[in-house]
Amino acid sequence: MGKRGHCKGQLKQLSAYIDGELAAEICAQLEAHLQECSDCRVVLNTLQKTIDLYHVPAGDETLPEEVRSRLFARLHLDHLAGEKPGE
Amino acid sequence: MSAGRQYPSEFVDRLIAGDGLAFNELVDQTSGGIYGLGLRMLGNAQDAEDMLQETYLKAHKALSGFEKRSSLNTWLYRIATNEALMMLRKRRSEIHFDPEPTTQEEPGDEVEVVDWCCLPEKEFISEETRTELNQAIAKLSTALRMVFLLRDVRGFSTQETAEILQINEEVVKTRLVRARLKLREELSGYFRERLRGQVKNG
Fold first, then answer.
1. Which of B41, B89, B108, B167 has the CB geometry, 3.0–4.6 Å to B84, for a possible disulfide?
2. What is the ipTM of this complex?
3. Which of A63, A66, A74 to mutate to test the interface with B (most CBs of B within 10 A)?
4. Is B114 in CB contact (< 8 Å) with chain A?
């Protein structure tokens, strides 16, 4: 465990690899490197885990009730709801 | 995967025509996500709420001119991110110094190699870890933070993120790599300590 200074060239590729955006040839080279290099495998796994930890789909987020009340009051949505389209 | 949900054309037409019920529905479906983005972009609840309100006020005014060239969701997030950027600029000018993080944005020469994926799941959902995640994101520059929030937190595609921020796709990709690597590095430092604690406690 600790800091390592090598494999800098592969670092930027790992992100594109996670997104499936690497060209086939580079992807094959990187996968061959990953077979050999346990440090890069750790970086790949922790990079993926970092992304997973941060991901929150919009649908999973709710507005606190008091924030929603103030938003609807500011937007005069009760009034809007009574309007007919085009008025 | 994409966060750019598509609304039925008929619903969008109702919004453009000024249908209040449709607007009410749009607000209810999207405001949680916009508010969550504001919290992470601006770092506090009051600013996030101001951003939220301004976003929908502006969206309501501008809807009659919506031309359907981009998706409604992308359009709404563009208004929200512009609002957040304006608030950040205003905040910087009011306090007379630039609090923008100035840490190196290129990956450093040394990389933290510690395999913390094996930590028990409860480590990842603890309140302390949530705080650490938020602090790590706050250390990113605005440019990196915006891209990371849209791409990885919210799940917009590269193309959608480029549309929302009005930058080209290559810039989105470059910033995303930098943001991810910096966050991974920050979290690795944090979880290394957690792993040490585990070893100590048996």
1. B41
2. 0.87
3. A63
4. yes
Q: What is the pTM of this model?
A: 0.88
Counting Cβ atoms within 10 Å, is residue A46 exposed (0-12), middle (13-18) or buried (19+)?
A: buried
Helix (H, G, I), strand (E, B) or coil at A4: strand
For residue A28, the one-letter residue type is A
Q: By the 8 A CB rule, do B23 and B60 touch?
A: yes
- For residue B64, the 8-state DSSP code is G
* Tokens of residue B14, six digits: 């109702």
In DSSP notation, A18-84 reads HTT-S-HHHHHHHHHHHHH-HHHHHHHHHHHHHHHHH---GGG----HHHHHHHHHHTTHHHHHTPP
- Quick one: CATH architecture of B121-200? Orthogonal Bundle (1.10)
Q: Which fold has domain B9-94?
A: Rna Polymerase Sigma Factor; Chain: A (1.10.1740)
DSSP tag of B65: G
Asked whether residue B20 carries a pLDDT value surpassing 50, the answer given is yes
